[in-house]
Design goal:
alpha/beta, 19% strand, two-stranded antiparallel ribbon, 191 residues
Amino acid sequence: EFSVFCCIFFFFFNDTATTEIYTLSLHDALPIFYIMNLKLEKPIVFFDLETTGIQVAKDRIVEISILKVFPSGNKESKTWLVNPTIPIPAETTAIHGITDEKIANEPTFKELAKEISELIHNCDLAGFNSNKFDIPLLAEEFLRAEVDFDMENRKAVDIQNIFHKLEQRTLVAAYKFYCDKIGRASCRERV
């Protein structure tokens, strides 16, 4: 389902139809993206984080996957496992499968920060729920690593926001979604 949202997202960047579609997979945990002749003025970085939890100021990155798409159409991707320097809670490991043992000998974010910063320099950023979680958490990690990071002169594209605008979360939308699938008569019987 997520790849469909990405297709919709790319449609907004390109108002002409195209048949050229590339399929890329960065990692099992990162959805497949369809890239459709983007008309970019500068590179865009799609990224996804796996973390120790959901508290932006407290939790740390344990994995970061990046897909950088250049205006020329060239692509670059990279995935790092990251030692967060704090324990990964068991309930979090149950979600992403990354254990303390798996990342024990991996570099810390501070050790990777300059390389990641260079890779995303002068790029717009995109992801799913990235404006509320991934970008703020990434900024916190850069701050702890004492590496400059700002969103000035960057666009932040949150595919979740686009999805919610296209697939509205209202009572009318819910009624249409559920009742059209089971039939209006059945829906009325349930009410």
